[in-house]
Automatic annotation (TrEMBL):
Protein name: FA complementation group D2
Biological process according to GO: double-strand break repair involved in meiotic recombination; homologous chromosome pairing at meiosis; interstrand cross-link repair; mitotic intra-S DNA damage checkpoint signaling
Gene designation: FANCD2
InterPro entries referenced in this protein's UniProt entry, alphabetically: FANCD2
Gene Ontology MF terms in the entry: DNA polymerase binding
Stated family: Belongs to the Fanconi anemia protein FANCD2 family.
Record region (Disordered): 746-774, 1275-1317
Cellular localization per UniProt: Nucleus
GO cellular component terms, A-Z: condensed chromosome; nucleus
UniProtKB keywords: Isopeptide bond, Nucleus, Ubl conjugation
Length: 1317
């Protein structure tokens, strides 16, 4: 530095200085010499002098600093001379000249000048240059990287302007420059505005531009040009690398900048619209979960919330895995952990998302990740809950269908599930063996070891004497048969195998069929299951089975069924039976020649009466049992339809043929029957009902008008037989489970110890785990309330054959009621094929049960540590082989006929209301009314089950929801709904269903209609719908509900529905406090002034029996409503104080209602009051007292009045504590400690409020005597000793007078409190 100064002065003073300058100019005109002058150099000392060449360089570089470039780029070398200069004569002019050069120079020179600016500028110039660079940033994308590089090295005062400039170019910047831009933004973000910056950044970032090259690559695969293909591949690689760099930048910011991590989570959490969420959000959440351990719980919570709200659909996750697998693969441990957690969730949408994560991870990642996914799924199956187990098996099923060859590598893991089959139910066993069979037979060589293991397991199970093991063996064997007999595609490698391999396959099939047939033929229950499993296999693999391989089996089936179960119809049947044989239900009476009949009663007699003898003798002949009648027929008709392209002409005679039964006019004869005769009759009716159910299953889809008519008649036969069976089972007989599909009927009075241990073991090892539930489901309650004739058979449902979903196409027939047509026209009605009310009720009842089982509602939650119960899939084995979406699609197809039926019901009850004055036949009218009411309830339940299905919240089912709503909206606006928006369809559907409010025949119907409307309105709930719901609920509450017999509706089901409707009213009304005050101040006094069995005139549903329901709901809603009042602040207005005044007044009114011993359920009301009274006081302390702190000076009188009102209520709560002690009510006493604690806190909080407002002298504390609810003093030894002294202490006055409840306290000065014992 000193040398440069000396050199500079010496040159300036030298007389030849001008000649030196001119000589230097001449010297640098030569390009090579100019290059040497620009290159950096250092002084080299020789023997006493500098070298002349070095001296020349030093002369022109006295203001130069060494840089690390030795290229021949002259502009860059020139610019480098200006870096790190010690002094500049005019720095402003230099910078201005440089910026001017930037505007006119080529891009490479612009790049060099901009990147050199931080080393040239003085500190005072940095802000001004930063603004100019920000302008350059907006002008074009070519200088993005050098500008941001320069800006990142400047000490900026205008960070906001610069960052905004960088933010504006994010959507349009080149993909390769995007990581640099994002890095600059994240590095310059401040904690105060981090959320705002990240929100803007995530809106600007669009990864769809990164997906385009991938799509180009996929299309280029079809092009043969190698040049094009390689170019596309290069583009894809570049795109993937840029995306990888982008997320590396985000990962570094998230890891080392705490504010960025939390701000990104907050930005995603604040997004409410579904369209605002992108693939970027999901990847960032996975990145944060993987990178920051401290934010994992928060990340998981946000992701779970977004899934529940439908903001993170599965399609978004699929796009993330398919288009950005290289990025997401780094987060695989987090993906696996989240998927495992989500499968434990109680929300179905979260569970579905977790299962989709497993599937996408298996498809997108490498072999290590695939192995981990399979291991995790196997762990779920072997050690998870039932729901978790089902989902895991479904995921494995999808994987084995879509990625068979990939999953084959990990078949050893899947095979280990065979060691944990004891906890699997039949449906899960089917899934497991389908997976194993597909793996075993899809690839011949690789699957052979799985085949051997499956053969060993199946042989072991089939030879077992335990019915459960034999059942699993049959299911596994049939699954293997289905895989072996599956048709092979022409291009399939298996179809090109050598002939000996095909013969080996035929041998395997023959061996399996012989093995199962040998193990089943002596046990009717097991044989029936074999037939059912084989029938399900044919139905599931319709058109895919190679029936040539099953010819031998099919021939024996076609031959065995007629020989076993069908006989020629004859006037007399020879043999000795408990009941005389009679041919019934013949629909082909005109065809007397070659008539046939089902030989039912002789078979039942042989089975029931000869059971012991048959079991004792080891017969080699196959057993013929009525248990196999329906299963064998189902298999026969499915096999026949498969062989004849759906035609059932070969077996259509079975539709109209009669059954050998007995005279079923049992009215008045049942009491004379012996126990054995009654059991025989019940078994006979069960077999007959199951036969007719399978007949309806078989022929319900036939187009022939005559066959349709016969199907309807068979439905009538079913309803008639069910009525007869209900009479036989009524009275002193009840069900005892045993292993077959027909229950054993025993007397209630019989000593249970006489029942053999064998029967009990059979009950425990029931083939389907049948355990009739003692608790009534909602459908049971509907039947009981409405007098449904099917209600008495609800507990026997598992023993009836399952109706197929195709049966409900019969609902397209019209409705026929007895009040419209006379007896002569019933024949005509059958000719035009119409449904009767009884048949409609039967079909709707079964449909409701199916929907309740397979379509869970949005409110469904998994109960943790639920009590183990029987197999929930009993009676739904066919239904469980369909997905919920397939079932929902079937119901949507039925919506038009269901709407017609409901409109018919509406018209019927509207006419009934108008004709109430007419005199009709009382008995028939009541019976018909009950039946039609049952149909109405079941129709409403069907609609509610469909529209409350939680699957509609998933993005993939939005089109199905639209189709369903369009059917309802089309009933109001025919032909005008095709182009309506979803919100408009919801409004029209809501209005259509709202029109049925005037015709609901019972309170339970009103309850279901309200729930249905809520299910539709919640998609989403708008203001006018909320008002309509409140108005509708109030209308139902203010309506008198009378049965056809003239009695008021009541009972536990009525109270449950009342509780729901009252909650709906109070939750949807615009002023809940006013509504509660109206009920408590108007309705309750009306009730108290009415007769003993009277009701409130304003609210007829409010009676002495239902008062606890009203009281509980009002207390709960009052406590809930005050919690919605925000906590008080200094700036709050008097509006909140007014709301709290009304709430406290309502609380005081409700408490005073309990003082009067007027109610039937007085103790129950006290329990309600003790619970919700404490919660109200706690809410008051938390939310109202801060408001009173700041309102006391402005509104002294209002605050004083509020506290005095609440004080009277708290005294009554204290009296209730004394009441619980006198009467030793344990349930009530349990609430006392917490209640007294809250009351004590209230005293001290009031004192703190007065101290805050400098009014401590206004506060006194006295001792409150223990009194009962009537105000009478509860005398104790201590209270007698104190006598009148305590009375004087009890009269403390002041604006906030209060006492400590239940504690012995004495005064300790003005406002002071001291505990004494």
């Amino acid at each position: 530095m000193a040398f440069q100064k000396k050199l500079c002065l010496a040159l300036e003073k030298h007389p030849t200085y001008p000649q030196f300058i001119s000589g230097l100019e001449s010297h640098i005109k030569d390009r090579n010499q100019f290059k040497n002058c620009l290159l950096p150099c250092t002084p080299v000392r020789t023997e006493g002098a500098f070298e002349s060449a070095g001296l020349t360089k030093l002369c022109i570089l006295f203001c130069c600093f060494s840089v690390g470039t030795f290229g021949t780029n002259f502009p860059r070398l020139i610019v480098n001379q200006f870096k790190w200069l010690d002094r500049l004569l005019d720095s402003q002019d230099l910078v201005r000249k440089l910026m001017q050069m930037v505007s006119v120079s080529p891009v490479p020179i612009q790049h060099d000048i901009i990147t050199s600016l931080p080393e040239i500028l003085e500190d005072s110039q940095q802000s001004e240059v930063a603004r100019e660079l920000s302008c350059l940033l907006k002008q074009g994308r070519r200088l993005t990287v050098p500008v941001l590089d320069a800006l990142s090295r400047l000490d900026l005062d205008a960070e906001l302007v610069v960052r905004q400039s960088a933010m504006t170019i994010v959507p349009s910047v080149k993909l390769e420059d995007l990581p640099v831009v994002v890095k600059f933004i994240l590095q310059n973000v401040k904690a105060a505005d981090a959320v705002e910056v990240i929100s803007d950044l995530r809106k600007s970032l669009d990864l769809s531009s990164c997906v385009l090259p991938l799509q180009i690559h996929s299309s280029q695969k079809k092009i043969k040009s190698q040049v094009q293909a390689s170019s596309s591949l290069s583009q894809v690689t570049t795109s993937q690398n840029c995306v990888k760099l982008l997320f590396d930048v985000i990962k570094l910011a998230v890891r080392f900048q705490k504010d960025v991590s939390e701000a990104w989570i907050k930005a995603i959490e604040n997004s409410t619209s579904v369209s605002d969420h992108k693939v970027l959000d999901l990847i960032v959440l996975l990145l944060i979960h993987s990178t920051n351990t401290r934010n994992r719980k928060q990340t998981e919570k946000v992701l779970r919330s977004k899934i529940r709200l439908g903001c993170m659909p599965e399609q978004l996750m699929q796009n993330a895995f398919q288009n950005h697998s290289t990025v997401i693969k780094d987060f695989f441990p987090s993906i696996l952990a989240l998927a495992q957690t989500f499968l434990h969730s109680a929300h179905p949408a979260v569970v579905s998302f977790g299962s989709c994560m497993y599937k996408q991870a298996f498809a997108a990642f490498d072999s290590y990740c695939q192995q981990e996914v399979v291991a995790a799924l196997v762990t779920h199956v072997c050690s998870g809950t039932e729901t978790e187990l089902d989902i895991s098996l479904d995921v494995l099923t999808d994987l084995v269908v879509q990625h068979t060859s990939l999953l084959m590598r990990y078949a050893t893991f899947v095979k280990t599930i065979l060691d944990s089959t004891q906890k699997l139910n039949p449906c899960q066993i089917r899934k497991l063996f389908y997976i194993l069979s597909t793996l075993a037979f899809s690839q011949k060589q690789e699957g052979s070891y799985i085949q051997d293991d499956m053969h060993m397991v199946i042989r072991k199970w089939l030879s077992s004497t335990v019915s459960n093991h034999k059942q699993m063996g049959i299911i596994g064997a049939v699954s293997m048969i289905g895989s072996v007999a599956l048709k092979r595609n022409e291009g399939d490698a298996v179809s090109l195998e050598r002939p000996e391999l095909n013969s080996e396959r035929d041998g395997q099939l023959s061996t399996l069929l012989d093995l199962v047939g040998f193990c089943c033929e002596q046990t009717p229950e097991v044989l029936a299951l074999y037939y059912d499993e084989f029938a399900s296999l044919i139905e599931k693999q319709k058109g895919n089975l190679d029936l040539k391989l099953l010819d031998e089996f099919g021939k024996s089936l076609v031959e065995d069924f007629p020989s076993d179960f069908v006989v020629d119809l004859s006037p007399t049947v020879h043999g000795s039976f408990l009941f005389p044989v009679k041919s019934l239900y013949n629909l082909d009476e005109d065809q007397s020649q070659e008539a046939i009949a089902i030989n039912l009663l002789p078979l039942v007699s042989q089975s029931e009466l000869g059971r012991v003898a048959a079991e004792a003798s080891n017969q080699s002949k196959r057993a013929v049992s009525p248990l196999c009648l329906s299963p064998c027929f189902r298999l026969l008709r499915l096999y026949t339809a498969e062989q004849n392209s759906g035609s059932l002409e070969e077996i259509d005679a079975l539709l109209g043929c009669p059954l050998y039964l007995t005279d079923l006019e049992v009215e008045g004869k049942l009491d004379s029957l012996s126990k054995q005769e009654r059991e025989f009759l019940c078994s006979l009716l069960f077999y007959a009902l199951n036969w007719f159910r399978e007949i309806v299953n078989a022929f319900c889809q036939q187009e022939d008008a005559e066959m349709k008519g016969k199907v309807l008649i068979r439905l009538q036969n079913i309803t008639e037989l069910q009525n007869v069976l209900g009479k036989c089972l009524a009275g002193e007989y009840e069900i005892f489970v045993h292993s077959g599909p027909v229950p054993a009927v025993k007397k209630k009075k019989a000593d249970s110890s006489k029942t053999g241990s064998a029967d009990r073991s059979q009950a425990e090892d029931s083939s389907e785990g049948i355990q009739p539930d003692s608790e009534l489901s909602e459908l049971d309650k509907v039947g009981v309330e409405a007098g449904n004739p099917l209600a008495q058979l609800q507990s026997y449902r598992p023993y009836f054959r399952e109706l197929d979903l195709e049966v409900f196409t019969v609902l397209h027939c019209g409705l026929l009621t007895k009040s419209v047509l006379d007896t002569e026209m019933h024949t005509e009605a059958r000719e035009v094929v119409q449904l009767g009310p009884a048949e409609l009720c039967f079909l709707l009842d079964d449909l409701c049960w199916k929907l309740e089982h397979v379509l869970p509602s949005g409110s469904t939650r998994r109960v943790p540590f639920a009590k183990e119960r029987g197999n929930k899939d009993v009676g739904f084995s066919h239904l469980c082989q369909r997905s919920p979406k397939e079932v929902a699609m079937c119901v949507v197809d039925l919506l038009k006929p269901l709407c017609k039926h409901m409109e018919n019901m509406h018209n019927y009850f509207q006419a009934a209301v108008q004709n109430q004055g007419a005199e009709d036949e009382p008995g028939l009218n009541i019976q018909e009314h009950q039946l039609m009411s049952s149909c109405y309830q079941l129709l409403l339940l069907t609609f509610r089950s469909l529209f409350a299905w939680n699957g509609f919240s998933q993005h993939g089912n939005s089109d199905l929801l639209r189709s369903a709503l369009q059917v309802l909206a089309d009933r109001l606006k025919p032909g005008e709904t095709e182009f309506l928006l979803l919100e408009e369809l919801i409004s029209e559907s809501f209005q259509y269903l709202l029109n049925f409010q005037q015709s609901v025949p019972s309170f339970h119907c009103a309850h279901i209609l309200t729930q249905l409307l809520i299910a539709i309105a919640e998609k989403p709930m708008s203001g006018w719908k909320k008002e309509k719901m409140a108005s509708l609920a109030k209308q139902f509450l203010c309506q008198s509900w009378v049965k056809p017999s003239g009695d008021q509706e009541k009972g536990s089901q009525f109270n449950s529905a009342l509780h729901t409707l009252l909650c709906v009213y109070l939750e949807h009304t615009d002023n809940i406090l006013k509504a509660i005050e109206e009920i408590s101040s108007v309705g309750v006094p009306e009730l108290m002034n009415s007769a003993k069995d009277g009701c409130s005139s304003t609210y007829p549903t409010l009676t002495r029996q239902t008062f606890p329901v009203f009281f509980r709901v009002m207390m709960a809603q009052l406590e809930s409503s005050v919690k919605s009042i925000p906590a008080g602040k200094p700036s709050d207005s008097s509006e909140k104080l007014l709301r709290w005044n009304i709430a406290v007044r309502n609380f005081h009114i409700l408490i005073n209602l309990v003082k009067v011993r007027f109610w039937l359920f007085f103790c129950l009301c006290l329990h309600i009051l003790s619970k919700y009274g404490r919660l109200f006081v706690e809410a008051f302390l938390k939310l109202a007292m801060p408001l009173l702190d700041h309102s006391f000076k402005k509104h002294t009188d209002d605050v004083q009045s509020l506290l005095k009102t609440l004080q009277m209520s708290t005294r009554q709560l204290h009296h209730m504590c004394g009441h619980s002690k006198i009467h030793q009510d344990i349930g009530l006493t349990n609430h006392v400690p917490l209640l007294k604690k809250s009351l004590e806190q209230f005293v001290y909080r009031v004192k703190a409020m007065l101290a805050f407002n400098h009014c401590q002298e206004a506060f006194w504390v006295g001792i409150l005597k223990n009194r009962d609810l009537q105000g009478e003093e509860i005398l104790t030894q201590a209270s007698e000793e104190r006598g009148s002294d305590e009375d004087s202490e009890n009269s403390a006055e002041g604006p906030a007078e209060e006492v400590l409840k239940g504690l012995r306290l004495s005064q300790a000065g003005a406002g002071g409190v001291q505990r004494r014992g």
